[in-house]
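Justification of resources, computational component.

The compute hours requested in this renewal are based largely on the per-chain cost of generating structure records like the one below. Each record pairs the submitted sequence with a full structure-token output. That output is archived, and it is also reused by downstream analysis tasks.
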Amino acid sequence: MSKPFFTRFEDHVVFSVSRVFWHLFIWTSCFAVVFGVVAWLWSMTPTSKEQVKRSEYPPEVKVEVGDFVFEQPAPVVNDHIETTQPSALSSSAGTPAVAPIAGEEPPTVRDPMEAMFEAVLDSLVAKYPHLGWNASVRTYITSDLEYNYYMRKGDRKTAQNFVRTVVEGEGLRDKIKRFMTRSNVNGYTARLKFLRTLFGDLDALHVDSIGQEQVVNKILRMNKPKRPVVGDISRSFRLARIFDAPERVPAFSWAIDFCARSQDGQLSFTDSAAVFLSSFELDQKYPALVHLGNNLVNSPGGDVGAYFRMCSSYPGLLSNIPRKQQAESLSQFFAIYATKNVERRKAMEAMDRQYQEMQLSAELRHRSTQNTKNEMGSKASWWIIGGIVVIALVGLILAILSMQRAISKLETAIVRNGIGQTLPSSHRDERG
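The structure output for this chain reads:
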């Protein structure tokens, strides 16, 4: 009779191989499981990114008074002055401040905020009548013969069919409402804020009625803004207030145009310019503002902070510059500064490129390390699973072989001693 399969496997495989091999096999599997767990835990740890430091820029070369050329005073040209025709109504030098609305009955409307908005408009019409709030209307008769005929008959209703009314111009009230819609000033709360900001700052600007009309029309002619318009209007008014009265309107016009075309990061220019221009003579502030705005493109990346740090030394030179040449000398300042700092700017550009390359290298190393961890984590999972499966499989085989040996020993004992000798005495009596 042939031996069972597990007995042959144990005789030819298990016993023919050294026990040391099986111990090494089990310990290797255990080591693979332990190493896999450690590698998986390492792959789960966050990867730190190398911090790259930018090198310090070389010091700038200062512009000195001796670098300027003062041959003859340069003319100051205000090239941004509005040419809007004055209103047909009278103009007065000075307007009263916007006061809280009191004693006015709002029109009967469903929304109380709408009633307040209309009431504010009515109060502004009374305070600023020269701004042309209402549209111009012209009435004419299409046929004098028929109109007079029915009027003589006393038929006024039929006579009105020959009367036409034509609106020849849009009033400021309608222009403001249309501008609010175009500029996404939605909701009566936002619209009330717009009116109070506009006319409150307009009154604080202290310009005559013609200037007020120019400022309001300039705002209402703005294209669809890129951001909430109230902020740009407030910035422009703050800048315009530092100028002399004749230059406040063109300064406001320049500022509102600048805000409309600038990015969000450049909006601090108006407030910084107001501080920078405070040291200039009144008649030199506006042309200096134009030079400041035109030279902003020379600042690296249009950075407003770096731009004003670049020209921060100029106010200290004003005491040695002729009064009528302060604005023109500012234009010279930018040219001289650029010439004297050519090498510095080249060095800064080279350092910026090196810094970007270092950042890119650090990013690539970070990604490479992260990819290595991901791959190691994936392999470690298979090592853990494989080690556990091998250990379980070897343990199962050894357990089956152990059971097989026990059964073989039992069969051998039965055959050798005989069934009767292995049975208890009570069983032998029953069989006899």
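Residues 350 and 411 are 91 Å apart (CA to CA). DSSP finds 17 helices and two strands in the chain.
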